Amino acid sequence: MSASLHNETLSRAQQRQAFLATHGYAPEYCSLLAADASPRQYYRWQYEGKSLVLMDTPISEKPEQFCRIAQLLRDMNLSAPEIVVCDFDQGFLLLEDLGDQTYTRALTSDNTRALYTLAIKTLIHLHQHQPQKVDFVDDYTSKELLREAMLFLEWYYPEIERKKPSLEAIQQYESVLYDAFTTALAQQPHRLVLRDYHIDNLILLSNREGIQRCGLLDFQCALWGPVGYDVVSLLEDARRDVDPLLKEQLWQVYGAAFPELNLEVLRQSSAVLSVGRHLKILGIFIRLAIRDGKKEYLAHLPRIEQLLKISLTEANLPHLTLWFKTYMSHLSHAD
Predict the structure, then answer these.
(1) What is the CATH number of domain 103-331?
(2) CATH superfamily of 3-96
(3) Is the whole-model pTM more than 0.85?
């Protein structure tokens, strides 16, 4: 490590220690908990039976928005962490510690159906109890969905094809996806979309009851958009295979809660959103490997590629399917 980088790291450590000390939490009881695919880092402060989580985040990761969304969720009786202390200028948040039992760790062959059903019912509660848009949450637009999907062309395509996409390929890709997203957005009710609603960001809180047993993390980038987005985020998981029969059962659970919706239309339009999400994640995981040296994400690429093929079929997007046959044939159909 260079001297400058060491000093920068040390300076940030000193800032964390000062933040804790200022608010009466002895810094020596704080230890690294985890980092994720973002620049955020998490620390656990633990002393005499009390435990809190310190989020250390760049300002670009929206710490103030995290607090606002957390309170919005808590007002709906959902288990987002309570905010204990915040310093938005430095990017420090001291949070309620929801524990280590992420769905990733808690899931077993015996409890999979029950825990996924709990996660779906949590989404149902969210969609039933937040019918009005709040002014601090932006819209999830076709433009934003397309911006995310462009990560596929920016990172995944050049790495796999060993060349940049042609101008014609880019223009066709943009046109087809923009139109598909616009149609899908118009076919669904809009509610709060947490955007990263998957097993790494759900905590099993066994000491609580009902939907409060499902703890929520990583929602600072929430937008106001289509209800199906978080459903496919959960069921079309980049990190874990989900049994097709269970997916079908969970869609039926969701549909039964909203009998006014045409479930067939909801699922088809959600498949379009799923296509966009898989394209985004393929780009992000390649970027994490190349730019950030986080090569562990490459292990998930085969699963995401297969999920993309399935979603393409379910979305019924002939023009996009033709694009893949023309420019990336190995992703044009499900095996």
Answers:
(1) 3.90.1200.10
(2) Phosphorylase Kinase; domain 1 (3.30.200.20)
(3) yes
